[in-house]
Amino acid sequence: MNALPVLDPQSPQARAIFHLAIVAGIIFAVIFAIVSGMVVYALMRCRWREGEGDPKQIAGNKTVELVWTAIPFLIVVTLFVLTWKTMGAADPPPAPEPDIVITGHQWWWEARYSKSGVVTANEIHIPAGTPLSIRLEAADVLHEFWVPELSRKMTTVPGQPNNIWIQSDHPATYLGVCSEFCGTQHAWMHFLVVAEAPAQFQAWEQAQLAPAKMPAGGNAAQGLALFQQTSCINCHAIKGTVATAGVGPDLTHFASRKKLGAGIADNTPENLQRWLADPQQVKRGVKMPDYKFTESQVTQLSAYLETLQ
Amino acid sequence: MNEIAAVLERTGLLSPEEREHWKMAWLSTVDHKRIGILYMMTGLVFFVIGGIEALLIRLQLAVPRSTLLHPDTYNMVFTMHGTTMIFLVAMPVLFGLANYIVPLQIGARDMAFPRLNAYSFWLVPFGGILLHFSFLSGGAPAVGWFAYAPLSETPYSSQSGVDYWALSLLVLGIGSVGANINFIATVLCSRAPQMTLRRLPLFSWMIFVNAFLVILALPVLNAGLVMLLIDRLLNTHFFLMPGGSAIMWQHIFWAFGHPEVYIVAIPAFGLLSEIIPVFSRKPIFGYEFVAGSTVAIAFLSLGVWAHHMFTVGLGHTIDLFFVASSMLIAIPTGVKVLNWSATMIGGRIHFDTPMLFCIAALVQFLLAGLTGVSHAVAPLDWQTKNSYYLVAHFHFVFVGLIVFAILGALHYWVPKMSGRMLSERLGKWTFWLMVIGFNMTFITQHFLGLAGMPRRVFTYSDLPGWGWMNMVATVGTFFMTAASLLFVWNLIVSLLNGRKATDNPWNAWTLEWATTSPPPHENFRALPPIQSRRPLWDIAHPDRPDPVVGSRGRIDQFKPEKNKTSIICFILSETGFFGVLILAFLYYNASPQPGPNSHELDLLTTGLFSICLFASSFTIWRAETGLRNNQQRRMIGWLGATIVLGGIFIAGQGFEYWHLFKSGVSVSSNLFATTFFTLTGFHGLHVCVGLIALLILLGLALAGDSRKKPWPALDAVGLYWHFVDVVWVFVLSVVYILPRLQ
Questions:
Q1: Homologous superfamily in CATH for domain B589-741
Q2: Which of A152, B9, B449, B550 could staple B388 via S-S, CB 3.0–4.6 A?
Q3: Which residue of B has its CA nearest to A179?
Q4: pLDDT (tens digit, 9 = 90+) per residue, B279-304?
């Protein structure tokens, strides 16, 4: 991963912004050099030395003033035109129907694929090379969707859907964050955008569409029973079981995801068990309460969730 | 404690008669110099608090995945840091400097309204304590200094922190408006006869222009705050779904918030414009352009707010308008920077501490301005907004420009205030520690932003570069802390045994240097002649005085009556408040909604008591005529009639409210009811305030006070009363008549 993702565009949209940044950056650098050059010149050449009196009293020069009002005006006009052009390229009008509807929740991201019906959380798979129209919504407060390499950032606003395009030229994985402060766990509202070759993406989509497999027995089966008997089903959905709630992330293919708790930890069995034992210890303030599961219950639940590939 | 009194007396900050009651002498003062110092001391106390909060932020972020602070604690700390530094440090310190310096620079004896001045000041500690009381009431606000809805609304912030935040900003906003009405009246009405408007020193000029920005912008925030409080306390939903709009809060907040940036930047521009010429030993380059560009900035700053909203989806057309206006503001700002630089070129620069701070402020502000333009370029903002790049940008403005300018100004003017020089050696140490620390912290943060780090996160993962860059930023804050401590130490040492300051230790040219250090209570024993912008230069160089600046133009001699001036300014500020409420009514009632609507209202009854209110404008005009013709009894009669008519209006409104309550319509019924009660309620409140003022006038008149000539109170209250009537014309049209036409 590049250390400065904002300057490492991987899509035509982000590249349009990057090119503008280069042009603007050069203009800014030249202005900075000229003006700070004036200051440095004054500091070097116009020092007072012991015994010197006051210099010639010059109170201004109208021509000079007009010149340095007019030149910035021309620069501003140039920048405005460039801005105007770039806005269209970086942020084209949305498609009539979005490819993915992404909803910001305190503190995770929900992604619904309009055509296939796939529902997932915090890990958005896209086919490389294809622009996707994304609709952004908010379930509670403002959030902001930002993947620097792929697109502009955009706020999710309750009651006012916004649209952006994302695209990745190559298969790669990108880190996205929430960039609008949204409460206690704003810091851990990460997500991954996984761009895959089209065939792989289709395979992923097919796999995501399948309902969860029923565990054959053992801890996993007990975990499923526990899941369906306790409060888990008040918030979570697992396709193929009685759990259909949409308050928390959909867990149908939970084990296929790389991260846990919107980026706070890797999705490993150990981390999952820590999470189930007390989510508040892992992600303080998270909306999932501590259910005070016993150790064996944690083992069973985690065994079950690990089967949800 | 008597040692403090002794020190104060020795330096001339206390007269011998005041020694016994020195605390009361300072706390009950209405002297602009003492109030100025009280403002700055208050600012210093809150700077310590806000500074400790900054340190906590940087300590928490020093290493990835730190667990030093609970996330909620961190969120409170950064909210309080921002709110404190802007409202309780930057504004009070700048207003304090202006309080001290402006009357001296314009050759006035005091501010136009010394008691209003004291009142405005005391609202600052009161507002600050109110804000900090939230810590004891279950938690400080944790919503960021701009408290975006709906996070700031009850469902997502159920504790009372946000209520204290809003109340405190209301109090501080009222204080700021009071202070700045006073600045306008002081500059316009109290300046020395020869001090024409075109001869004003640039700091005073900029405080004058800035004051208009304050009285126009702060009431917009106040309107937003009352709407937020009504949402939170009365269960309505201006900014909440369903029906309410989170974006509306952003419009209101930034319509205040962007001018606010200039409200603290313009005084800093004024400071640079004073200090750079003195230490370059040359007059400011292009006085008219520096002054004129300030007016341009103030105007433009009222129309750039939505550049804070490029990422909320307003659409490209609206975005482009604000791109253009925000870019335009770079032009007058650039003119200023170029003029300061040109002032130094060809000068004989003295590198004393005040100048060092100003040079650094100039270069740092150059960078801040350029990154500012990069935010005006909307597509770049789409990337860098809400990242550490933005954090770096605005700290370059607030610290790089404003704090540096303030530190320069304090090193420049403290000798005038205390009569003691500050140590140059300590001053230079302060400067270098500050400049190194500041740039370590905030230059680094630009790159953190480009590395993708969002602002307001309590921690972060160990991504490439993030760890060490955050560590560098944290180390920088310790340099700044050392600089701040050293500065306070320098102040104390200089007060105890600093070298005595002469009247004009820097050989400066403006009037504050024509009096003793510290100045006597009445400021000047005698004023020198003023014929140019640098009266003291003319005295020191009779052989080559500055060109005389004309004094015969109409603008030069403009000197209105101060009571009238202040009430007009007050009305101007109220326009912003009611403007927001009226626009909110129109916005929320643009489409009909379930529940009560304007057809519930009885136009006939309202029309009748409206006629009473309009008639009262006539009666108060008759009362004024009576006073002018010296017909006391007639005047009292018409005044009484005005009160009766106003009373009928209030009674009528009460009847209307009662009727609505009876049919089950309350403020939380729907957005029509909310906006109706908010708008008419605040108008009614203003009528009540007017009635109280009229009753006081009536009492005074009956007691014979109105026989004293002149009696400007009636004119002032009369103007206010007309304003309240005019507002009702708008309210009546918008609330009662317009919906019937549709």
A1: Cytochrome c oxidase, subunit III, four-helix bundle (1.20.120.80)
A2: B449
A3: B454
A4: 999 999 999 999 999 999 999 999 99
